[in-house]
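Q: What would this chain look like folded?
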Amino acid sequence: MKNIIFLLVAILLIAGCSSTGNLGIVAKSQIDPGALLTSSRPFEEKGIVRGKACRHLILGIIPVGDSTVTKAIESALASGGDALLNVSVTSSLYGFIPIYNVYSFTCTEVEGIAIEFVD
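A: My prediction, written as structure tokens:
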């Protein structure tokens, strides 16, 4: 009985959710994706990359960090590459002691195939 009560209390203190979506092509903010699609520039695949960006919220009013998709893409392309193909985007939100909103964080993760344009 004590284990069941402990489990219920743990579930109430730690709550979270996530969502996933897919995109075809995502480029760095300096590159125009429309121009990429209309011009037939050759590219080479660099492989599968992952990037993550998180934001922490303390006491419900003090944000620390950046959890935008743009930041996650920059993180994924930090090792090289100009754009991502077949991108999967996952957003997660976790709250600890959610009734009082003492601490929570949200993360955005991207995964895709990095490509680099050849001149």
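The chain has a mean pLDDT of 81.
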